[in-house]
Write a structure and sequence with these properties.
This protein is an alpha/beta fold. It folds into 2 domains: about 1-175, HUPs (Rossmann fold), CATH 3.40.50; about 185-280, Pantoate--beta-alanine Ligase, Chain: A,domain 2 (2-Layer Sandwich). Helix content is about 40%, strand content about 20%. It has helices at about 5-20, 35-45, 75-85, 95-100, 110-115, 115-120, 125-140, 150-165, 195-200, 200-215, 220-230; strands at about 1-5, 25-30, 50-55, 90, 145, 170-175, 235-245, 260-270, 270-280. It has a 6-stranded parallel β-sheet, sandwiched between helices. Strand 5 (about 145), helix 8 and strand 6 form a beta-alpha-beta unit. Helix 7 (about 125-140) packs across helix 8 (about 150-165). Bound molecules: adenosine monophosphate. The site of adenosine monophosphate (AMP) has 17 residues, from helix 2 and strand 5.
Length: about 280
Amino acid sequence: MKLIADIKEMQLFSNATKKTGKTIAFVPTMGFLHDGHASLLKKGKEVGDLLVMSILVNPAQFGPKEDFTSYPKDIKRDMALAEDNNVDVVFNPAADDMYPAGFQTFIDIEKLSNRLCGLSRPGHFRGVATVVAKLFNIVKPDIALFGGKDFQQARIIKKMAQDLNMDVDIITMPTIREADGLAMSSRNSYLNKEERKAAICLYNAIKKARDIFDNGVRDADAILKEARNIIKREPLAVIDYVKVCDIDTFEDLDTIEDRALLALAVKIGKTRLIDNDILG
Ligand code: AMP
């Protein structure tokens, strides 16, 4: 496994790889890896000849009051997990090299970025789209893999690739969960024992919504009320949003015709967690 920090070196490596006719699969991450990341790496190894994973805590996607400086890091453990998952290249650029002084070009996916998480995290998806576009220009992947846990992010990246004619296939993979159902996330490491127990309310809310939907209820408000009640019963939880919305546009739905996205963001103590499910 190769470790590359230099942007130009990564570009040259990708150019050389592509000249041999090999395809590149790419998994962008912010590190502090878990089995959710590993599932993307396994799939990446299946669909591409060469597997590149990036590790970068991207300053552009954090708000001024968010956890950029405290975001968990363990590069040694990440390298071991990458090796176990047959990663060929770990690309680990310095944030200052990605955003040198004078940097001023950003990508805005206008409508999709201003719903759900975009409302409570202004500028977040602008930062995500910009760094992913930069990483695509550096790594030059044929295929890039994203997790369904960050459903809005994956949808936005797909839209960016489509709108800007980026020559890359985007694959979205299912959410990997802990044994009790909590979606795996690097931020789960912030939770103390009591908060960890409380965090299961997100999955319980999803299960409740799914039960009601499976019993034939199609009224979004009726589903939302029950889902919100599950979270409200948990004293450590504060709802950011719980929404039933269109799976493509993220516009709120009153009635579910065919299928819908149930998306939620909940603060457990100081930790903001997200989860989602497709109803239908
Ligand atoms: P992050 O390091 O949190 O930026 O995540 C890097 C990639 O891993 C993103 O595409 C995430 O959607 C994906 N990912 C994170 N958590 C999970 C999970 N529990 N299941 C599947 N994919 C995940």
